[in-house]
What we know:
- With 458 residues, this protein is α/β, with parallel strands linked by helices.
- It contains 17 helices and 16 strands.
- Bound molecules: ligand F0G.
Amino acid sequence: MKLPLEPFRIKMVEPLKIISREEREALIKTAGYNVFKIPAEKVFIDLLTDSGTSAMSDAQWAGLMQGDESYAGCRNYYNLQETVEEITGYPYVLPTHQGRAAENILFSTLLDKNSVVPSNIHFDTTRANIEYLGATALDCVVDEGLDAEIEHPFKGNMDPLKLKAAISTYGTERIPLVCLTITNNSGGGQPVSMDNIREIKEICHTHSIPFFLDAARFAENAYFIKLRNEKYKDISVPQLVREMFSYADGCWVSAKKDAMVNIGGFIALQDKMLFEKLQNLLILREGFPTYGGLAGRDLQVMAIGLKEVLNEDYLAYRLEQVAFLGNLLLEAGIPIVKPVGGHAVYINAKKFCSHLPQSQFPAQALTVALYLEAGIRAVEIGSLMFAYRDNGSGKWHYPELELVRLAIPRRVYTASHLKYVADAIITLYQNRNQLKGLKLVNDPPFLRHFTAVLEKLD
Ligand code: F0G
């Protein structure tokens, strides 16, 4: 199997330690079978998220020292603004401390409780920010994107017919914006094709609906387009990125992913009027528009990371690294979402734990088992994250996809680490019938998975 070849060498290391199984058992019980509540030092390989967990480059560390910590007009803001404009073509840039703050500011300004926001699949914080305002988050991904088994090059695409149906059902006045998540995180990190971005733009344009990209993993999406669409194979990544953004009116970005920083985000826009409108809320919630909840040094490393991620040797390695773990699992017959996504491998827990109904949170049960088995922390993207109870009947609705996400931090783990992860999952798969389900003991009103408490079922 092809080993991912790192286009960097290691200059600084952080020790890792694996604690005993007994200690892990005690910890997970105290944590209410919720891996978010386990101290990171008690985790051996942390695949909870690829967000804010990247290793910065030497250039970024050097950039930290160039922070201009002036309250207003720091030079790092202008560096960031120029970089974002060069990459996206959008001149108006508002920094935020992370992606969800950008969502909050944008949605609080554009939505009311009757609003409906179509996306391919909303990420959890995006959905929660919309629902918190009483509005509706509508997923319109292509049917292939809801089937873990089907091989399709662009399973993150939005179904244009579903979008058109939403427009005719709700009317344009109730749809303040349409967005596309690139890559589609909650649907397996699957890319959206250039043709789909263009087609969704055309529909939005016809109906005068603003169109946004939730672009946390924009570079990975662009590289997938290059690899999977013959038409684009000779086009450079910066050109592909520029074309993707050219179809939208604006974007919000969690810079904790592809921009390879530990904290940061931004909104970027074509429209000066909207920029001015958003500034007011930004000042109230985040800070003055030239720092937006970040230090000058954070803005500087973000600007550097945004350029670094466009390097094609890096992107080739990045996608190969994720595919390496995916292929080790596929070879062992383990059901994962196919094809392998850009930032993570997603195990299909419905199939892995076919003896457990969704009411027993199979993906969470597998996540817990993986921590117990090998000190590996993954994250559930399934019933614990997305199931909801009908207000009237009290009946539970379960999501189509029941996944365990193994998110790979950027430039952090080696192929040996990933082999260790694959071996642990293979061992669990061989003993999968012994996995026990879980039940909810405490059910927070939104973003339940972060704080929920569960118990083991016998
Ligand atoms: N949009 C997408 C597509 C995301 O994946 C995330 C975060 C956000 C928005 C929110 O950004 O975390 O900076 O506030 N995803 C992380 C994850 C948390 O683990 O996938 P944030």
